[in-house]
Amino acid sequence: MITALIVDDTVLFRSLVGAALQKVPGLSVVGTAPNGRIALAKIMALVPDIVTLDIEMPEMNGLEVLKALAEKNLDTAVIVVSSLTTRGGELTMRALELGAFDYVIKPQGPDGMADFERSLTTIIGSLAKRREIAKILKGVARGPRVERSIPQRGPLRVGSSEIVAIGVSTGGPQALLFLLPSIAADFPVPILIVQHMPALFTANLARSLAAKCLVKVKEAENGEVLRKGTVYIAPGGYQMKVALGADAVTKIVRVTEDPPENNCRPSADYLFRSVAHLYFGRATGVVLTGMGSDGKAGIEGMKRAGALVIAQDEATCVVYGMPKAVVDAGMADLVLPLGGIAAAIVESVN
Fold it and tell me: Which residues pair with 51 in a beta bridge?
């Protein structure tokens, strides 16, 4: 049985989270807490496997709870329940940096509760099923940072990659915070990332990554020229693709309001499709942790165009959905733990 503690300063949200957790098989809610001080005492006494944590609370806030948990080295998976605001995004990124496992957005609008329950139960359900919470938190499941040789490809792959395109969803912020700091400042090509995330969160993600990476990290802007050693994060609520500039040679970023694909905007399929079109035989496609199958169709197009395809393995994914779709379709050249992906990316461009 997986045990959970609910921490929020409002009775309503403690009730909503409790109702969502009741739908997770094999999970038992062992307590609730209205603030961080009481939460920390209950965590010490009950040692729950999972804590759902509000950040803005009286007496002791969620960030202070995370700092205390880190000091005590407790193997408890913390899932932040965040508000969809600019401040909520800033605090959520800080919580992830302090060791929170993932986050869910508090319900927004009439259909918000269904989305909230789906996200929360998917994350917790995946953890509960595998019963690897402690191992994941300690970083063991991420795997070693090992060198992996790129396999020989067919005639379509014509040379080293000139672009890296990454698709990621649930569990993505933590995966990116682990992966991207391993990339050197002189990385010779641009990296474009689609992270399924709300509009107010992607700018905060870019700032958080920029503070920890040697490469430049920024939220993508429409029309800007792609530069080597730069990571472009697709803005939440928009699509992002690569396109040709006015001279029909220079590669630029296009940020559009084109419709969602796979219920996602930004969509990995949308990005991957554009990369396949412009980088024949000279691209690396990477699919990381996430629910659903966004990215599969786009990766298929990249594969036909001679791209190298890397998928994160099941053991190190929060949700083995997007990579699984690619692996099951036989389109992954490399299936690696999170710790081995940076080295493979670097090898693919050198």
Answer: 5, 78
Output the six-digit token pair for 293. Answer: 């199958």
Show me where the domains of the chain are located: 2-138, 143-349
What are the CB-based long-range contacts (under 8 Å, 24+) for 44-48?
A: 44/72, 44/74, 46/3, 46/5, 47/3, 47/74, 47/76, 48/3, 48/4, 48/5, 48/76
Mean pLDDT of the chain, nearest integer: 89
The burial of 138, by beta-carbon neighbours within 10 Å (0-12 exposed, 13-18 middle, 19 or more buried), is given as exposed
Burial 155-184 (b: 16+ CB within 10 A, else e): eebeebbbbbbbbbbbbbbbbbbbbbeebe
Distance CA 279, CA 66 (A): 43
- Tell me if domain 2-138 and domain 143-349 are identical in fold: yes
Residue 51: partners with Cβ closer than 8 Å, 6 or more residues away: 4, 5, 6, 7, 39, 43, 76, 77, 78, 79
Residue whose C-alpha is closest to residue 305's, from 198, 164, 170, 157:
157
Read off the amino acid at residue 65.
V
Superfamily of domain 2-138: Response regulator (3.40.50.2300)
* pLDDT tens column, 136-190: 444 444 555 444 555 555 546 768 999 999 999 988 998 999 999 999 999 999 9
Q: How far apart are CA 189 and CA 350, in angstroms?
A: 10
Tokens 């949700």, located at residue? 319
CB 48 within 8 A of CB 30: yes
Neighbours of 109 (CB within 10 A): 8
DSSP class of 315 = G
CA 145, CA 318: separation in Å to the nearest integer?
19
Peptide bond preceding 34 in cis form (omega within 30 of 0): no
pLDDT, tens only, 187-213:
999 999 999 998 889 999 999 999 999
CATH topology classification for 143-349: Rossmann fold (3.40.50)
In order, the DSSP letters of 259-288 are PPBTTBSS-HHHHHHHHHHH-TT--EEEE-
Q: Annotated catalytic sites, by residue?
A: 169, 196, 294
